[in-house]
């Protein structure tokens, strides 16, 4: 008995406890809801059976119903476009800004700090502001575009089905860029300066240095930024609610907004859960790619 | 030892205090009321007044957020913690009533000296009804009508006392008043992909002879075709597809739209923002003499069937209803009753507008009642948006909506 107790404070028992406590937490707070979600997607759930576990089991009917709806394919495609374009935009702009502020010109660090304002603002506020910017008749963006002669008429960003998704993507890129920039700045600052000095002596130009030193050294940071970007863009809900409501005619609807709409507007919780399960499959696939891309990493 | 003594003394004192508190109200029955009303709105004030009566019933009030009313209520009901009384959005009443989550009030209303079903406008009353029985009492009501800018009418040689009365006249007037040079649209309304879109379109369909479970009538197709005509000719902003009613009316107030379809909740803002002469007209009809209709908003009071004190809860409701005649004066909301005259406010514009809204209320029809209203509403929104974006023609879109609606289960 005493040995077991003492191993809990120092030894194998201690190690196991260290692992078991967070695992138990993870299971309780993430695992169980996840399983519950999967269970719900195979049941018939409405608001009056929300409270009980035993509900009519319907097999794959929710999935079949969902995929036989005409809008489903478009919404899944929108989700993919939204995620890819948002991550690409946030990453490229964020990386560009991180490199720019990495040149350490006077005032660089506080200017960089100012950029974080966009990340601190709540999504609904950002959405409301972009709602005004993107307004077709009196929006700032249209004013800029027409007065500089880039377009000769107003573009109805929120209401034209060919632009509506891009309107939300634009706002989302603005929202996420500064977060990407900060993470990438941290990655950049951890690259030893002498590497650059040595390569410069060897005659490597700016692009060669970027390609052979910066990018490889940033590999894990980039992986983390992209993985986080995936999570944040798949969570992005406020901007849809504030700017387009998924309209017009579902042209800017995405899986995460749809899941909410099904659950909390149409009170069809089973369908909402089904959409989330489909999203889980996508996220699992993406995290697999992430894990594989960083497994050659040397951890120090 | 001393610590223990202090704790003991404290516990005894506490027990004494709570015993006193209990003694003071031992005979009181507690009724809980949930609504989304804030300090300046009816519910919390009525609760306070009721408690001041000190008649053996004590009411506890809880404010819930607009977006959470239904989900909070059903969670509470599912776990056995439902309040006694709740204020519920009128199209959601049937959802709870059909599952017997609300108390059948029919007999109580029949025997009541205060609540008389005949006093109510037919629309609000229908929204409180399910399967021929009363499951709720209308709390307040509102509807939509046509606001128009009289100054613009004069500038374009139109008679400001002759607002458009039919759909054709509305389109024609919008054509005359649309002025792209000056950023003026003829009409502002909302075709948004949420309940607001349904709220605005359904009256048009109903005037075209449609009901929610027969949405693809010839008249409804014509209504949707008229909307499309308005959009195609840019008589309304293309952003109508994503503008809320609040946003759409803002363009009217700013002088960027000559007419707007919206409700009485805009009157005060218009008085503050609009620096021109305006009026309100009844919603235009398909052709002269056609049946009128308009949408109907606002909440119903209902008692949960799980209540332990149905008699007392109904007494509380009776008190609320007895104060209906002060509702407009004190809180600016329109009581859902035809037997209460709206008192003059002293502002001619406002009084004239209210008179039109009260007239329009006679024709207001509820959404539903149907326990799965949100799904029906979604099908209608999809039809509107598919048509206005040019992806389907009105007939096909409404046919599809009708098909989706017929697949919605009855409960």
From TrEMBL, chain A:
Transmembrane annotation, as ranges: 12-36, 75-101, 113-133, 163-189, 269-291
Example of a GO cellular component annotation carried by this entry: plasma membrane
Predominant localisation class: membrane
Intracellular or extracellular location(s): Cell membrane
CDD domains, per database record: TM_PBP2
Residue intervals of the ABC transmembrane type-1 domain: 76-290
A GO BP entry: transmembrane transport
Keyword Transmembrane helix in record: yes
Membrane topology: Multi-pass membrane protein
Pfam families named among the record's database cross-references: BPD_transp_1
Keywords: Cell membrane, Membrane, Transmembrane, Transmembrane helix, Transport
Assigned protein family: Belongs to the binding-protein-dependent transport system permease family.
Stated name of the protein: Inner membrane ABC transporter permease protein YcjO
Organism of derivation: Martelella mediterranea DSM 17316
TrEMBL record, chain B:
UniProt superkingdom: Bacteria
Name of the gene this protein is made from: cycB_1
Pfam families noted in UniProt: SBP_bac_1 (PF01547)
Keyword Transport: yes
BP terms from Gene Ontology: maltodextrin transmembrane transport; maltose transport
Protein name: Cyclodextrin-binding protein
Alphabetical UniProt keywords: Periplasm, Signal, Transport
A GO MF term: maltose binding
Segment forming the signal sequence: 1-26
Entry similarity comment: Belongs to the bacterial solute-binding protein 1 family.
CDD domains: PBP2_TMBP_like
Gene Ontology CC: ATP-binding cassette (ABC) transporter complex, substrate-binding subunit-containing
């Amino acid at each position: 008995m005493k040995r077991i107790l003492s191993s809990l404070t120092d030894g194998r028992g201690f190690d196991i406890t260290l692992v078991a406590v967070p695992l138990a937490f993870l299971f309780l707070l993430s695992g169980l809801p996840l399983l519950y979600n999967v269970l719900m997607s195979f049941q018939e759930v409405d608001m009056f059976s929300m409270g009980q576990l035993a509900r009519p089991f319907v097999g794959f009917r929710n999935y079949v119903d969902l995929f036989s709806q005409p809008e489903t394919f478009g919404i899944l495609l929108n989700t993919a476009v939204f995620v890819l374009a948002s991550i690409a935009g946030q990453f490229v702009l964020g990386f560009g800004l991180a490199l720019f502020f990495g040149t350490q010109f006077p005032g660089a660090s506080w200017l960089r700090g100012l950029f974080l304002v966009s990340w601190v603002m709540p999504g609904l506020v950002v959405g409301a502001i972009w709602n005004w910017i993107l307004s077709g008749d009196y929006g700032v963006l249209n004013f800029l575009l027409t007065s500089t002669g880039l377009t000769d008429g107003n573009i109805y960003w929120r209401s034209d089905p060919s632009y509506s998704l891009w309107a939300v993507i634009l706002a989302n890129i603005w929202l996420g860029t500064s977060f990407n920039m900060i993470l990438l700045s941290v990655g950049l600052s951890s690259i030893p300066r002498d590497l650059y000095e040595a390569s410069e002596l060897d005659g490597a130009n700016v692009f060669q240095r970027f390609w052979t030193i910066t990018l490889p050294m940033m590999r894990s940071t980039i992986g983390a930024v992209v993985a986080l970007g995936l999570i944040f863009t798949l969570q992005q809900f406020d901007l849809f609610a504030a700017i387009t409501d998924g309209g017009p005619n579902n042209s800017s609807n995405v899986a995460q907004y749809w899941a909410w709409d099904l659950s909390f507007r149409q009170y069809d919780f089973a369908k909402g859960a089904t959409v989330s399960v489909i999203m889980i499959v996508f996220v699992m696939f993406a995290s697999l790619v992430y894990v594989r891309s960083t497994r050659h990493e040397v951890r120090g | 030892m001393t610590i223990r003594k202090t704790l003991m003394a404290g516990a005894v004192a506490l027990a004494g205090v709570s015993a006193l508190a209990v003694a003071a109200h031992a005979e009181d029955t507690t009724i809980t009321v949930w609504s989304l009303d804030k300090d300046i709105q009816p519910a919390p004030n009525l609760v306070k007044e009721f408690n001041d009566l000190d008649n053996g019933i004590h009411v506890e009030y809880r404010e819930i957020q607009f977006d959470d009313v239904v989900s909070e209520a059903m969670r509470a009901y599912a776990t056995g913690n439902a309040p006694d009384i709740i204020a519920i959005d009128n199209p959601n009443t049937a959802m709870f009533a059909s599952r017997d989550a609300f108390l059948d009030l029919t007999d109580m209303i029949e025997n009541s000296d205060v609540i008389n079903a005949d006093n109510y406008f037919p629309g609000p009353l229908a929204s409180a009804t399910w399967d021929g029985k009363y499951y709720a009492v209308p709390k307040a009501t509102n509807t939509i009508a046509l606001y128009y800018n009289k100054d613009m009418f004069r500038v374009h040689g139109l008679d400001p006392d002759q607002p458009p009365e039919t759909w054709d006249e509305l389109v024609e007037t919008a054509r005359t008043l649309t002025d792209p040079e000056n950023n003026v649209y003829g009409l502002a309304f909302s075709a948004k992909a949420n309940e607001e879109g349904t709220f605005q379109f359904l009256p048009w369909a109903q005037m075209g002879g449609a009901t929610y479970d027969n949405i693809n009538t010839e008249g409804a197709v014509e209504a949707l075709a008229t909307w499309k005509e308005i959009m195609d000719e840019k008589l309304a902003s293309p952003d109508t597809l994503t503008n809320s009613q609040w946003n759409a009316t803002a363009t009217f107030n700013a002088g960027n739209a000559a007419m707007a379809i919206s409700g009485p909740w805009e009157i005060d803002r218009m008085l503050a923002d609009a620096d021109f002469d305006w009026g309100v007209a009844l919603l235009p009809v398909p052709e002269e003499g056609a049946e009128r209709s308009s949408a109907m908003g606002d909440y119903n009071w209902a008692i949960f069937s799980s209540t332990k004190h149905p008699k007392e809860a109904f007494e509380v409701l009776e008190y609320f209803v007895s104060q209906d005649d002060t509702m407009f004066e004190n809180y600016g909301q329109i009581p859902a009753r035809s037997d209460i005259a709206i008192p003059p406010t002293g502002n001619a514009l406002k009084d004239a507008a209210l008179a039109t809204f009260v007239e329009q209320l006679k024709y207001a029809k509820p959404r539903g009642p149907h326990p799965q209203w949100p799904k029906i509403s979604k099908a209608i929104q999809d039809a509107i948006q598919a048509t206005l974006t040019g992806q389907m023609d009105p007939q096909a879109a409404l046919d599809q909506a009708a098909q989706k609606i017929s697949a919605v289960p009855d409960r």
